[in-house]
Predict the structure.
Amino acid sequence: MLYTSESLEAVIEHLSRLPTIGRKTAQRIALYLLKQPREEVAALAQALVGMTERTHYCSVCQNITETDPCPICQSTKRDRSLVCVVEEPSDVLAVEKTNDYTGLYHVLGGVINPLEGVGPEELKVRELIQRVQNGVDEVILALNPNVEGEMTTLYLAKMLKPFEIKVTRIARGIPLGSELQFIDEATISRALEGRVTV
Amino acid sequence: MHLRRVSFRNLRNHAATELEVAQGANVITGLNGEGKTTILEAISIATLTRSFVGTPDAHMVRRGQRSYDVRIEGVSDYGVPRRIEVEYDAAAGRTALLDGTPAANAAQVIGSAPTVVLSPDMKAITNGAPAERRRFLDMVISQAKRRYLEELMQYRRVLKQRNALLAMARRSGRPADRTLLEPWDEGLVERAAHLMYERTIFLREFEPIFRDAAMRVASGIDRADIHYLPDAISAPLASVADYRDALWFRCREVAAEESRRGTTLFGAHRDDLRMEVNGGDVRVAASQGQHKTLLIGLKIAEFHYLASQCAETPLILLDDIFGELDPQRAERVYELTRTLGQTFITAASLDILPFLNRRGLGPGEAQFSVESGAISSIRYGQIPPSGEALRAADS
């Protein structure tokens, strides 16, 4: 159904193209924005434009940033000999939230997926190799535990082997706060395989 | 596990059907196309995540509707109420609830209410292509071992990706990049080794059960055997490590041919089973009648195997199999399966089961007639346990 205003309709159409936003939600957001003070809406519009104009990929870690290198890569508090490889910028946020990791990152931009035509050339693999050549002690592979993530982990491990540095992958196992009886068998099997001495 | 109630809406030609079932044998009669098999399919959708007929979900939905739902309620062997609810919607896909809790994936539902299905299509297990026998293997072991199903789903994914990689290389006219292919080799070998080892273990346990069951139902058979034929390996091996070694060897052996043809030429998706009667391959040595009875033997063996491996007694779905048997054998199979567990049987009419007409329905038996997607009449051998009002609704 078309609303009476063409400009409102245009906003709804743009919003409904966003991920997880359906037409109904788009309508709600558009009507909400319509009720806001003009400055609020202008600030949002400006923020959106500013985001696309000012952000780019960090030349070192390939994360999204406004400065180059990004604040993490520039920080003097960070351990520069340690690189954690993740799929997407959102994974950097996830690891950062732990406050436990003090090394640098490398954002691959996805995983190897032949069915979708994604190979190493489509990812930031060459950039990773370059960083390793410039001196890194350990690379931590923190990709998602699905088939494609696992195969990409194996591939990167092979590519990094000639450099004779430490290459590790994050552990797979039981989520904290859960109970063994409710965990699926595959996860328990993997957790048993990855058991550690106490 | 036995069911108490089966209800579903907008499935094939059924608008809304609900039946309270008997604890023993449930005979569903109706002419072809009236919708009797749909009741068995509904149970299969709940316990095996899909119809055994193999129809895609989108085509299961009643004409003019966008979604269907199925609900089965039963009692576990320990007396605990269980229920499985499945909802399919053309836009949202399929969701399943196991005792009210959303199931994350198929693996969580499969095996919780083990089910043995025998339908006319399954003749292909004894005389069709190897894929039919692998489907049989996978269906049985997946219900008994959840890790197997997980590995199988991952194996299929790795295989698809590896094939895509090989096909891409073939199109480009260059052999696949070894460093790019190697992770997929490893992924395939690891999972294939696990699957093949599990299949070996399964056959070891299954063969004596099968031999015994086949002798009981088939006639003119002195000996029935079933063997596992792992791809390109002469005899089953003793451990996952042995399979891993054999698969790596095979991987290198077929590498050149694989890049020429652009597809995977080794692995667990090329396994087969060999069935024998009186020492000869069943495909040439067995008569038409023996094929039928061997298949029944295979399914009875599947029941015994699942009963021994799972926490629950399996359900038995027998779709349209009695019409092909002579009356004496039909009666024997009927009585045998009825004593094993709860059965759901379809037949064009009761004439196919003349002994039931003769002796009448006993306790634990029920008969439902189906006409144009609705229950038209119900008879019980005794009042069902709950005594609730029964409804054959078509709203």
Remarks:
- DSSP finds 13 helices and 15 strands in chain B.
- The CA atoms of residues 174 and 274 of chain B lie 38 Å apart.
- Residues 122-311 of chain B form a domain with the Glutathione S-transferase Yfyf (Class Pi); Chain A, domain 2 fold (CATH 1.20.1050.90).
